[in-house]
Design goal:
- This protein is an alpha/beta fold and 243 residues long.
- It folds into two domains: 5-25 and 113-240, HAD superfamily/HAD-like (Rossmann fold, 3-Layer(aba) Sandwich); 28-108, DNA polymerase, domain 1, CATH 1.10.150.
- The protein is built from eleven helices and eight strands.
- It has helices spanning 5-10, 28-43, 49-58, 60-68, 76-90, 97-105, 116-123, 137-147, 167-176, 191-199, 234-240, and strands at residues 16-19, 26-27, 111-112, 128-133, 153-156, 184-188, 203-207, 229-231.
- It has a six-stranded parallel sheet, with helices on both faces. Strands 2-3 form a two-stranded antiparallel ribbon.
- Strand 6, helix 10 (191-199) and strand 7 (203-207) form a beta-alpha-beta unit.
- Helix 2 packs across helix 3 and helix 7 runs parallel beside helix 11.
- The longest helix has 16 residues, at 28-43.
- It is globular and about 55 Å long.
Length: 243
């Protein structure tokens, strides 16, 4: 039996489900590699695009940390553009400005995991569903439309002028949805997100995405947080929650 199922039966189900997006709802890695390879093929640029995409993603959190430590807030496009330029230089790769922009815009064209669309639709039957992503609202609106994913509200760290895992991001989402922490759950494939949400009283729900970093990478471990519910995908989560 998965962790958290017995716990769930003993407590009130959450009214609100907040969803991380990159890695939890959509497959950023294989999508971006395909976009990068297609872009490079048109320009005749040869490179280790899987390695570049991985390094680009690893630069994501440090860039946001600088904002969390007091730098002026900028949206994710701006941060991704800056980190991509640095990563390409480190790999000795030069591409046209238009191709750089195509890769940055690629974050709006990420494929959903196979269970995401059905799982979200089922979960919406009994819960208020909302994104809570570090992507800004314009990016999320384009991405959700591209991936054909439906939620009740599009919420972003942008609304708190911060980035997860800052507490204010989660608290702003709860305030906007008129929801107490104990009536909400954070659904994510990443431990840091769930640790931060659980510390504020939200129920942590861990979605296992073993292929997020590719078939050769070790899967992420479930975080050690009290009351954790663990599911193998969103359809599985809907089954656990009786949706």
């Amino acid at each position: 039996m998965l962790a958290g199922v017995d716990i769930l039966a003993a407590v009130k189900p959450p009214r609100v489900l907040l969803f991380d997006v990159f890695g939890t709802l959509v497959d950023w890695r294989s999508s971006l590699i395909d976009i990068a390879e297609a872009t490079a093929a048109r320009s005749g640029v040869r490179a280790d695009w899987a390695g570049i995409v991985d390094d680009w993603r690893r630069a994501y959190q440090p860039a946001m940390d600088r904002i969390r430590q007091g730098a002026t807030w900028r949206d994710l496009d701006s941060l991704q553009r800056e980190t991509l330029t640095t990563v390409l230089a480190r790999h000795g790769v030069s591409i046209a400005v238009a191709d750089t922009e195509r890769l940055v815009r690629g974050w709006r064209q990420l494929r959903p995991w196979p269970d995401s669309r059905e799982g979200l639709d089922r979960l919406r039957r009994a819960h208020v569903t909302a994104t809570l992503s570090n992507g800004h609202i314009a990016l999320l609106a384009d991405l959700l439309k591209f991936a054909d994913l439906r939620v009740d509200a599009v919420l972003s760290a942008q609304l708190a002028s911060g980035y997860k895992p800052d507490a204010q991001v989660y608290l702003t989402a709860l305030r906007l949805l008129d929801c107490q922490p104990e009536d909400a759950a954070m659904v994510a494939a990443h431990a840091a997100d769930l640790h931060a949400a659980a510390a504020l009283g939200l129920r942590p729900i861990f979605i296992r995405r073993p292929l997020e970093w590719g078939p050769g990478a070790p899967p992420a471990d479930a975080p050690a947080v009290d009351g954790l519910l663990e599911a193998g995908g969103l359809v599985h989560l809907a089954e656990i929650l009786g949706c």
